[in-house]
Amino acid sequence: IFFRIERAFGFMDCDHYKHPSEVLSDWMARIYRLRLTTTSGGNLSVLDEEGVVWVTPRGGDKAEIRIADVAHAALHDDPSEPLLWKGGSPPTTEWPLHVRCYQLHGGTKSKVRAVLHAHSPTLVAFSLAKDPSQQVPDPTVLLHTCGLTVALAPYALPGSEKLADSIEGAAKTGANCIIMQNHGVLTLGADMTEAYSRFVALEFLADALGQATTLAQRGYPIKQIPEDIRNKLLKYKTHKHREANGEPDPKRQKTSRVPSPLHSDVEDNTILVTAEEKYARGELIRFVRRAYNQCLITASSGSFSCRVKDQPHFVITPSTVTSSDRGKLSHSELVLVEQHAEGQIHYRGALPSRAVHIHDAIYRQRPDISAILIAQPASALAFCITGAPFHSQGIPESYVVLGDVVHLPFESVTNPQQIAAGFSGTRSCVFIDNYGACVCGPSLLKAFDRLEVLETMSRVHLLAWQRGEPQLMNDEQVKELEHAFMS
To answer: Which residue intervals of 223-354 are DSSP H helices?
Structure first.
């Protein structure tokens, strides 16, 4: 019973200590639970440390793959050598494309160790487009997806060598995400967590782009991130990778680490973790999981934080460099950030979210704020990548909960003070173009409610535009509402 509950909510242990069959069974159940594939669609594989390929079985129920049915075969560095499959069931008919991906990237020494193929609704819709320019989502419209490289594989019969050839041709371009024409999507990763994160990030992006079409038709075209700024920020992200691997970045002047109580060193374990900090960690985990289950964040997106009561500290989600699965985030992976004079911060634990300076700047400007959430839900993203104005006067709840919602330019991502200034007065919600939605509140619950309402009303407005120009509450109705609920 516990295993079923654990699987249903996605809080699985580290894949490194699991049998490959269990890894594939758990991940496929998670993909199915999020309705990103069907009972009969999609397949997964991993290449283990001993050079053995494990793939999901042919047919069966994707919601509950029996571990005994997972097929496996030793991979040969010579592609002409046939594979001898073993297991309770034959491998998926599309095993050739999985094996081809591993052989292309180094055979048994391949850096690619996981391949994910699924029939997610929005990416399948892109694969059906007649217009070649509409077949592949453009990852450069959103900072979170700039690291994705996407290519198109022309159609071929499922399970055929011709399809494997098509996938190989697309993969040779350096793509880590491949749209399979009239079929689905395939992503590659160093492990299944990375392959899954890329898959979900691409699906959310495609969903946002599809919804943004409604706004583009109303005169708000989709905007790309300027290439020079994009390259600068991606370079900064590379510095974060270096630091996560123990190579300090000399350009980071205002952030320093203190020993972590989570490491095995005796001195580290002497650091006190107060009851207030433990409570903050517990609450933050609760709302991260809730946001993930509500599809407000993905496995690799979202930056949430909350203050520690009566202390000049806040707890924040870690960088995806060190923890790339929000769906399985634990208390110990959260980062304690200590705010000091002159804008300096120290952090304890893992590498903090790359948005940590944005959180810090907002907290310093707004002492009344106790929680900050930055997220990239699909409908809100449609407004972020077009710059279309958002009007909260659609319904009373929206206006009362959200208030005035403004856009900030993408360049503000490199200037936390500019973002903090966007929260002047009592403003609690902003769109940061090509980046995401940022909301705050006096508690995690209030901030989460605002994020939920913002995403819901973004979706409502997009649906309303499909039926003509929406009718908003007039000035008199707004004043009446303010007097009754906001005075």
So the answer is: 227-244, 275-293
Summarised one tens digit per residue, pLDDT across range 377-418 is 999 999 999 999 999 999 999 999 999 999 999 999 989 999
pLDDT at 242 over 50: no
Q: What letter represents residue 324's amino acid?
A: S
- Per the DSSP assignment, residues forming a β-bridge with 437 are 375, 431
Model pLDDT for residues 180-204, shown as the tens digit of each residue: 999 999 999 999 999 999 999 999 9
Residue 481: other Cβ atoms inside 10 A: 15
Contacts of 341 by beta carbon, 8 Å cutoff, 6+ apart = none
Q: Which two tokens stand for residue 456?
A: 């819901």
DSSP secondary structure, 390-450, as one string: --STTSHHHHHHH--EEEE-GGGGG-HHHHHHTT-TT--EEEETTTEEEEEESSHHHHHHH
Tell me which amino acid residue 245 is.
N
Q: Determine phi and psi for 367, rounding to 5 degrees.
A: -60, -20
Q: How far apart are CA 182 and CA 155, in angstroms?
A: 6
- The residue among 134, 273, 121 whose CA lies nearest residue 199 is 121
Q: Are 422 and 440 in contact (CB under 8 A)?
A: no
Closest CA to 144 of 216, 68, 79, 208: 208
- CA 175-177-183 angle, to 5 degrees, is 125
Return d(Cα 364, Cα 266) in angstroms, integer. 34
435: closest CA among 191, 200, 230? 230
Task: In whole angstroms, give the CA distance from residue 98 to residue 115.
Answer: 6
Q: What is the distance between the alpha carbons of residues 103 and 300, in angstroms, rounded to a whole number?
A: 27
Pairwise CA distance, residues 73 & 185, whole Å: 24
Q: Which residues of 98-114 are buried (b: 16+ CB within 10 A; e: fewer)?
A: bbbbbbbeebbebebbb
The secondary element (H helix, E strand) that includes residue 150 is strand 150-153
Can you spell out the DSSP letters for 181-238? TTTEEEEEESSHHHHHHHHHHHHHHHHHHHHHHHHHTTT----PPPHHHHHHHHHHHH
Please give the single-letter amino acid code of residue 98.
H
If DSSP states are collapsed to H, E and C, what string results for 421-438?
A: HCCCCCCCEEEECCCEEE
N- to C-terminal Cα separation, the chain: 51
One DSSP character per residue, 47-107 reads: E-TTSEEEEPBSSS-TTS--GGG-EEEE--SSTTSPP--BSSSPBPTTHHHHHHHHHHTTG
Residue type, 35: R
Give exposure, 373-403, as e/b (b: 16+ Cβ within 10 Å).
Answer: bbbbbbbbbbbbbbbbebbbbbeeebbebbb
pTM summary value: 0.86
**Residue 165 neighbours by CB under 8 Å, 6+ apart:** 100, 156
